[in-house]
Structure formats: structure tokens, C-alpha cells
Design brief:
Layout lengths: L2 H12 L3 H13 L1 H13 L2 H9 L1 H7 L1 H24 L1 H4 L10 H13 L2 H14 L3 H28 L1 H5 L2 H24 L1
Length: 196
């Protein structure tokens, strides 16, 4: 495993995207446990991408313009749905101490869908992994490193957001603006994906 691989992977994982936004919103809305579950769900959502890359399905998807466009627009639709749901559903990002904790299953399913419908992740694996891996075993090992880094970085983001939760509780207007920010960010990422 090369230093170039580790640095490139770290940069790719640390750069905020849909998974980071989702983990941050889970941490702010529901606390530390939810943020770690969201990080786990985002990491779990990478598994189908890894399987597709290792078995060659990702290359087929990359080669087929129609298949790629279908996955791309499913991703756009899901991001726009998240934007709409975040904007209108105050229960998702408004922090209250009297509410029940978020369902782990719901958080994981949302996070997995988020990464599953992310064609940029597929392209990243198709273009990135073959440069560093010579065989099947090495591709699996490097994918595992990528997933481990994803989980750790996303969990750090989420736990940090959860640590800010009490300060946000004291300022309800801040939470309203954060909810709007997350909704706008999901919408912007969806539009950017649609235009890419």
C-alpha cells in the first residue's frame, strides 16, 4: 500500500460531500450515537460499489451511458428528496430533548441509499483503485482501507456535530438556519450531479 494511495484516499474522504452532510445532520439532530450510526451506514453503502468495482460491473456501468444516466438521475432524485424532506420535516433537524432517539435502521437505510445512488463514487473506484491495485486481493484490501478511513473520518465529523448539539439547543434560530443550510446543500449537490 503506497503513501500516495493513503493521501489521495484521505483527501477524498475528508472533502465534504453528501455522506459528510448526512452524518453532520444526524449528529446535530439526534446526537453522538446517531452520528456514528450514520457514519457506519455511509461506509456500508460503499460495499456495493466495491463489489461492483472488483467484479467489473462498475466498468460496465461506466461504459454504458444509459446505465450510468439511470443511476445518476436516481441519485439526483434521492438528493432532491433529502433536500425537500429536510426543509419541510422539522422533526429531522430540530433538536428536542423530549423526543425518542432516531431509529438506527432508518439512519442506516438512508445512508446506504445515499452512497448506493452516488455514481461519482463508482467512477472514483473505477478510475482510482486500478492505479494502485494489481490483483483481486489487493483491490479488496485497498477498498477495506478506504472504507475504514471513511468510517473514522465521518464518525469524527458526526461526533463533533453532536458535541455542538447542546449549544444549538440554546439557540433554536441557529437550528432553523442549519436545517435550511443542509436542505440547500442537498439540493445543490443534486443539481451539480444532474449537470455533471
Amino acid at each position: 500500500m503506497s503513501l500516495a494511495f493513503l493521501i489521495t484516499t484521505l483527501v477524498a474522504v475528508v472533502t465534504p460531500g453528501t455522506g459528510v452532510l448526512f452524518t453532520l445532520s444526524a449528529g446535530l439532530a439526534h446526537g453522538r450515537r446517531a452520528s456514528v450510526i450514520a457514519a457506519f451506514g455511509c461506509t456500508l453503502g460503499i460495499v456495493p460499489q466495491v463489489v461492483a468495482t472488483v467484479t467489473g460491473l462498475a466498468a460496465l456501468l461506466h461504459a454504458s451511458a444509459v446505465a450510468f444516466e439511470i443511476v445518476k438521475y436516481l441519485g439526483v432524485a434521492y438528493l432532491l428528496y433529502l433536500a425537500w424532506a429536510t426543509w419541510r420535516d422539522r422533526g429531522e433537524l430540530v433538536v428536542r430533548t423530549d423526543t425518542a432517539p432516531a431509529s438506527a435502521r432508518r439512519i442506516v437505510v438512508s445512508a446506504v441509499l445515499l452512497n448506493l445512488l452516488n455514481p461519482k463514487l463508482t467512477i472514483f473506484f473505477v478510475a482510482f483503485l486500478p492505479q494502485f491495485a494489481t490483483g483481486f486481493g489487493e483491490m479488496v484490501a485497498l477498498s477495506a482501507v478506504f472504507m475504514a478511513m471513511t468510517f473514522v473520518v465521518f464518525a469524527v465529523y458526526g461526533v463533533f456535530a453532536a458535541s455542538m448539539r447542546d449549544r444549538v439547543l440554546a439557540r433554536p434560530r441557529v437550528m432553523v438556519w442549519l436545517r435550511r443550510f443542509f436542505a440547500a446543500s442537498f439540493a445543490a449537490l443534486g443539481l451539480k450531479l444532474a449537470l455533471s
